[in-house]
Structures are given as structure tokens and as C-alpha cells.
Amino acid sequence: MKSLRNTILLAALVSLSLSFLQAQSTRTAQQWMDLADQETDPQKALAYYKEVLKIQPDGPTAAEAYNGCAVMRSGPTVKAYREALEDIEQAIRRNEGPAKYYAQRAYIYVQLSEYDRAARDYEQAIRRAPAKADYYSGLSYCQTKHGRFDEAETTAQKGIDLDAKSPYAYRNRGRARLRKGQIDVAIADFQTSLQLKHGQLFRVYCDLGEAYEQKGDSQQALKYYQQALDRDPDFADALVGKRQLEQKLKTGGGASILPASNFTGRRVALVLGNSGYQYINSLDGQPANDARSMEKRLTELGFETVLAVDLARDATEKMLREFYAKASKADVVLVFYAGHGVQHHGENYLLPIDIQLKKAEDIELQAFSVTNLIDALQKQEPRYCIFIIDACRDDPFSKPAGTVAPVGANNPDKEKHRSVALPKGIEQPKPGQGMARGFRPIHVESRIRNCYVALATAPGATARNGPNQNGYYTSALLTHLKKGRRIDDVFRDVRSEVVKQTQKSGFSQQPEYIDRTVEYLIL
């Protein structure tokens, strides 16, 4: 009797299983889509979207499924941004119409610190849905990241005009105004963003801390930095801002007293040197020499080094992605670049050897944004990151081609500018719409506790090749970059050395550094 009951129970279970499988197999693409859209577990939702694509691999339904996959993969619990990018590009290939696809891709590019590409996608989304206020807010954020503060303020205002109750547009307008030095109106925007209940209040409190610090009200600044940390104790921008301001107040603006560490864990370095430019002024091998010399020194200091000389754009992009994976969670990450660099439309760019300047906008499409690189490096979450740029930062559009003669018998001035000449037949850009001499000041938004950016010369100025094997700046680095030294002392001594050596040659090059750290690094 017991055996009979077990047999009946087993048969019932088999029948139920078959019925379930049959129901699964007979679901339509739309039914799978509805299941996926309602599912809160990203992995289950992705599985349902895959079922949609098995039934409907092309057309608008497939596009929606790929968009759903992109949303899930770019969410806060998955953060698989490269896979999400592939998904949303599949969606756009199947249906180029929806504005939300371009906005989704823009969001993914922001997470990848590719703000120029994100801005172009937000512009595409706005063209398709000009009444969507959030798209203007996203575009404004990208414009501020790339130093286009007037554009960012105007764009944010359009978002406010469309939705006066959006806290995000007010915050982004405030960020643009703060970078322009309009402190009081920026503070008013941040306060409005708070009142409208911005979704990440810790960011707005940090903005207020920075604004009051710029205003000279240290106590208010410390209060707001602390309010940011009360809401997110790990928010690096507030942590660094508060610690550095506290140290400044303790020391009266002198040398700060911070904990020191050897950071004895894994150290990795990417060393790039571009000399042999194909379509703009060559730099006669000196940046390549600089890179090789730095690679040797960093290896001596215990870094796992990756050396790359004279890379084209695609090879550089591939190298960077591979290095970011290598740099993930390392103790110390260092990137060194020697070669051409320029400022364009408010942002600073490093140039690959195959860049072709047929028009000013080619910089955005072919070169590498310094802001993007610094943010992407920080997103790998090392304990300490260092970015060293030995670039000329002269304006490729400022003079006719051929004004810088090759070093040789007809050019005794071996201290050649690391500059770029305008190719023949290209129209000069209009004032304020092209490039400018030297880098603009770099603003580092802290994503980790320790980030240091060192530049061969001051904003608005240019660097030169040196008279010997290495440039002035790299020569000084090789002199002072030694085991047991504190990194901040190294860069101070490098600055003094470069000023001294260049003044002997009849000009003055003054290196710059941006210290966003809460600990000293001992090499």
C-alpha cells in the first residue's frame, strides 16, 4: 500500500514538472519580457531577457530585451559595464529610434569615465526627446567634467526650465558655477538640490563643503564635509577634503602632518612614451627615451611595469583596458606619459602617434582625455594612485605647419618644444572654440583616499625637450625618484630642479602637482 502511494505521488510530481516545462516552453516573447521587467533579481531578469532573444532575436522586441540586459548589467549590484555597453549597442543596432537607449549608453559611458562619448549620446537622446529634463542634467554633468562650464550651466538651466523640481539639474548647475568661481550662486543651487531631496545627499553636502572651503569659511566647510561622511563614511571626495582642510588648519597652511606608509603590497606601473608622430610634429625620440628610463627606475623601485612606446590610438586603448584590469585593488598604481598633449574646449588631452588633425573636433574623437584617465584609474580602487604627465601642451592650431624645424644641423636649439603644428589646409578655429596654449588647471574628484597628479609645467605654459637624452622634467624625476623617499618630497624637489635647470637655459618651466591624499607614500 505504501509503495502504491509513493508511485502515485511520484507520478503527480512528474505530471506537475511536465506541465511547468510545457508552460515555460509555450510562453511568448512578450510574456518573458513582462517577467523580466518585473523581476528585481538581476540574474533572473537577465535569464528571462535571454529567453526573449531566443524567440525574437531581431526587431524592436529584441532591442527592448537588449536594453533590459544593459540596465541590469549596469546596475549597482552587477556593475558589468563593458558587457552592458555591448548589450545597449545591440539594442541600438536593432532600433535606432528610442532616446532612452542613447541615454542608457551615456550612463554606461559615465560609469566607464568616458565623458566625451557620454556627452555625445546625451545630445542624441535630447534630439530624440527634447522635453526630457533628466537628459539635460546628464549632459551638464559631462560638460562640467570636461571643463565646459558655460555650456554646462546653460544645459542645466534647460533641464530646470523643463522640470523645476528636479534636484539633479540644480546640483549640476551649481557644480558648473562653482568651477567658474561663482560661489554664492553655486551654494544656493546646492541648497535647492538638498531641499528637493537629491537621491545622494552625501554628494551635495560634499559640494557645499568644497564651496565653503573656496569661500574661506573653513568651519562651514568642515561641517558639510562631515555631514557628507555621516551619510556615507566611505565617500572619498568628502574624506579627502575634510582631512586636508583639517591638516591645513593645524599647520597654518604649511606642510601637513599625515600618516606615512610604505604601501608594501603590489605596485604596478604603465609607462607610455610617444615620439614618432605620423602626421604632426615628431619629438625626435626624447619621450620614448623618457619612458624607457622611467620604466627602468620604477622596476628598481619594485613596480611591475608595462612599457609602451609610440602607440597608435587603438593600441593605446587596448593597453589601457588591460592595465586597468592589472591595476585593480593594487597597493600603488602609477601611470607615466611623455609626449604631445593639448587643451581643447576646456579639457586636456594626450595624443596618440596616429592622430590626424583635419579639424579641431578630431581631438575629442582621437585623443585621450586626462580627466577620463584619472577617473578610470581611480575606479580600479588602488590604495594610492599617481599620474605623471610630461607633455608639452602646446596648441596644434596656433601656428602654421613647419614652424618647428627638426633638431639637427639647421636647428641648433635642441631644447625643442613638445608642440604640434597645424597641418596645411586646415582652417584656424574661432576664438574660444578650438585649442589653447597649455593645459587648463586639473580638478581631481577623489574616488579613492590617495590620488596624486604631477605635471611637467604649470597651467597655460608649455614644456620643452631637454638638451640631453631626457626631457628636463624626466631628468629631474630620475634624480629624485629613489627608494625610501616620500613621494610629496620627490615632486617638490623635482619642481625646484626643473626651475633651476631651465632658468640656466634662458626660460622657466615650473612643474605643478595636485595632491589629493590623506597618507604619505614612501617609495
CATH architecture of the domain at 261-521: 3-Layer(aba) Sandwich
Strand residue percentage:
5-15%
Low-confidence stretches: 16-23, 395-414, 424-433
Helical run tally = 20
Percent helix, as a range, is 40-55%
How many E-type strands? 12
Question: Main sheet, how many strands, which sense, barrel?
Answer: 6 strands, mixed
General shape: globular
- Strand line-up of the largest beta sheet: 3-2-4-8-10-11
| Computed CA radius of gyration, to the nearest angstrom | 27 Å
CATH topology of the domain at 261-521: Rossmann fold
Mean pLDDT: 88
Overall structural class, as computed from helix and strand content, comes to alpha/beta
- Top-tier CATH class of the domain at 261-521: Alpha Beta
Amino-to-carboxy terminus distance: 80 Å
How does this model look, in words?
This protein is 52% helix and 11% strand. With 523 residues, it is α/β, with parallel strands linked by helices. Among the domains are: 58 residues, Serine Threonine Protein Phosphatase 5, Tetratricopeptide repeat, CATH 1.25.40; 261 residues, Rossmann fold (3-Layer(aba) Sandwich). The strands form three sheets. A six-stranded mixed beta sheet has the order 3-2-4-8-10-11, sandwiched between helices. The chain has a four-stranded antiparallel beta sheet with strand order 7-6-5-9. It is globular and about 90 Å long.
Top keywords for this entry?
single chain, 523 residues, alpha/beta, Serine Threonine Protein Phosphatase 5, Tetratricopeptide repeat, Rossmann fold, four-stranded antiparallel beta sheet, 20 helices, 12 strands, 11% strand, cysteine-type endopeptidase activity, Caspase-like_dom_sf, TPR_rpt, TPR repeat
